[in-house]
Design goal:
Blueprint (H helix, E strand, L loop, with lengths): L1 E3 L4 H5 L10 H31 L4 H29 L2 H15 L2 H4 L3 H29 L5 H29 L4 H5 L3 H14 L4 H7 L15 H16 L4 H9 L9 H21 L4 H21 L3 H29 L5 H30 L1 H21 L10 E3 L1
Antiparallel strand pairs: 1-2
């Protein structure tokens, strides 16, 4: 497996500072992600507890809700990716996706049954599916190739900053509203609509896409043959990583399980996302310079540590430490996997490539979440995290032993 390196490495070595001269559109997309994630993570940091306590849902039910919601997002990403490649209208689809997510936010506090939550979560993730592949392709097309890793790292960092702010707001307003979860869920509405407005005003389609749209052709099944083996290996790798890392809803449930008061349960997501936000951009810039294999192996090793810590946790402090390791794993791997997809796919098929990648990863997340919920119900919380650690360890061994046969180009490095 390979990851393409920038064609001008000297330009990277001459600009190693933390802040890069990235286009304004990349910053705008990052802040869009930040506002939407602050809204979504406020909801998600309370939703598992809301389902388990207020609505009386079992762990298996929560796993199914989370898994099916993410699978719906993944399936939608394939179609949105193909459509964005055909019409070359990445921004238009992104606006639709973010808009759908925004209009679902008032439904959560209005929910009176698990069916309402499932419906709102489903539509919210459909919106995520619509926007995901076009947005990721847009990042690749706005950013200079030699700064692509930094661009994905910056977007992930701002996204994670929002994911930190959301649970922080949840904790603050749970205190303010005396643990009234429904009242707190209303707070998520405003930042979601700010994200949509910022996307409309602050992001422009690249000129190259406008010109290409005039010469578009219908994408056929045969076009998939242009996605080379290197790309499919990245897809397989993403699925393996997702199987080893089930829904973060189980982190929230674990926090409550070890005694964290209900009003402070979102703190576990705050810790995870602070670490994620701090390390995502440095990890992205590192991906422009060093072997992807090294970063991926580090990420899997840290995920094993996170799962073990969460499995043995007997107090909130230990659970928070496990959450911090989980965030570090995410920082090292998520932006890198996006970069690998962009590097190994043809430019005119990037939307499709991201869609397929997310479809496979979403299916893996559904499977992982259902298994995690079932293990929790049958054997307890520790079994869920021990299983995750075992799978991550096997994945790391497989990646360590893998050696691509083909020689890579002069601007490539082996994973």
């Amino acid at each position: 497996m390979t990851s393409l390196q920038p064609s001008n490495p000297e330009s990277i070595s001459s600009n190693k500072g933390f802040y890069r001269k990235l286009p304004k559109g990349i910053w705008a997309l990052g802040f869009v992600s930040m506002f939407m994630d602050s809204s979504s993570e406020l909801v998600h940091s309370l939703l598992p507890i809301f389902m388990a306590t207020t609505l009386g849902a079992s762990m298996v039910t929560i796993g199914i809700v989370e898994g099916f919601a993410e699978a719906a997002a993944a399936i939608t990403k394939v179609f949105s990716g193909v459509i964005s490649d055909y019409f070359q209208k990445r921004k238009f689809l992104a606006v639709i996706g973010y808009g759908l997510a925004a209009i679902t936010k008032p439904i959560f506090p209005l929910a009176t049954s698990i069916g309402w939550v499932f419906g709102a979560r489903f539509v919210d993730r459909i919106g995520k599916g619509i926007r995901g592949a076009p947005r990721d392709a847009l990042v690749a097309e706005i950013a200079p190739e030699q700064l692509r890793g930094a661009a994905y790292g910056l977007r992930q960092a701002l996204d994670s900053a929002g994911a930190f702010v959301g649970p922080l707001l949840a904790v603050a307003f749970m205190i303010w509203f005396a643990n009234d979860i429904k009242a707190v869920l209303w707070v998520a509405v405003l930042p979601a609509f700010i994200a949509v407005l910022l996307l409309i005003v602050g992001v422009r389609e690249p000129e190259s896409l406008v010109h290409t749209a005039a010469h578009r052709k219908l994408l056929l099944l045969n076009d998939a043959k242009r996605l080379r083996l290197r790309y499919w290996l990245v897809v397989a790798l993403g699925a393996v990583f997702t199987l080893a890392r089930f829904s973060e809803a189980f982190l929230i449930l674990r926090a409550q399980d070890v005694g964290l008061a209900i009003g402070y349960v979102p703190v576990i997501m705050i810790v995870m996302n602070v670490v994620y936000s701090i390390f995502a951009y440095p990890a992205g810039t590192a991906a422009d310079r060093i072997s992807a294999r090294t970063l991926l192996l580090m990420g899997l090793g840290i995920l094993v540590v996170a799962d073990i810590v969460l499995a043995i946790a007997a107090s909130p402090g230990i659970a928070l430490l496990g959450s911090a390791f989980w965030g570090l794993h995410m920082a090292l791997t998520q932006g890198l996997l996006s970069k690998l997809v962009a590097d190994t796919a043809p430019a005119d098929l990037r939307g499709t490539a991201f869609g397929i990648f997310n479809l496979v990863s979403g299916g893996a997340l559904l499977l992982a979440s259902v298994i995690a919920g079932s293990l929790w119900n049958m054997f307890g919380a520790s079994a869920t995290f021990i299983a995750g650690a075992s799978f991550a360890a096997f994945a790391a061994i497989g990646l360590l032993l893998y050696r691509p046969n083909a020689r890579v180009t002069e601007h490539s490095k082996e994973i």
